[in-house]
Task: inverse folding
């Protein structure tokens, strides 16, 4: 199985990402917990691109591909926005009271804890975030 979706960097496009993940879930007969976790991961990472990768007002494309070899589901999130490697961001300190914790960082922490492998590359002016999940 191999699928791809291209969206604009607008919040309303998150619905398309959700539908894309639901479609993959149906096709691969994924259980509800895994499907919810994958939706959370993709919403977090795509939202980060929408909100932070481009200057305000600039419209750009975001691509999300998914491939499954039967044992592992691989997603690649691609954009031409500002270079940013989320894997280098320090994990949020979960021992600190959420009301006192510094804003941000929880999404990346969640992604690293749900997915089995998260890697980043900057190639030919593109951010490529690869996220793998054993199924």
Result:
């Amino acid at each position: 199985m191999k699928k791809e979706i291209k969206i604009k960097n607008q919040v309303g496009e998150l619905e398309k990402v959700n539908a894309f993940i639901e479609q993959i879930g149906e096709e691969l007969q994924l259980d509800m917990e895994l499907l919810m976790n994958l939706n959370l991961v993709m919403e977090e990472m795509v939202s980060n691109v929408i909100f932070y990768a481009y200057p305000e007002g600039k419209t750009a494309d975001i691509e999300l591909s998914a491939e499954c070899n039967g044992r592992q589901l691989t997603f690649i999130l691609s954009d031409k926005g500002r270079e940013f490697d989320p894997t280098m961001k320090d994990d949020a300190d979960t021992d600190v009271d959420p009301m006192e914790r510094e804003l941000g960082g929880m999404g990346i922490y969640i992604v690293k804890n749900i997915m089995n492998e998260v890697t980043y590359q900057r190639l030919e002016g593109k951010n490529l975030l690869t996220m793998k999940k054993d199924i």
Q: What stands out?
A: The domain at 2-134 is CATH 3.30.565.10 (Heat Shock Protein 90). The chain is about 35% helix and 30% strand. The chain has a mean pLDDT of 91.
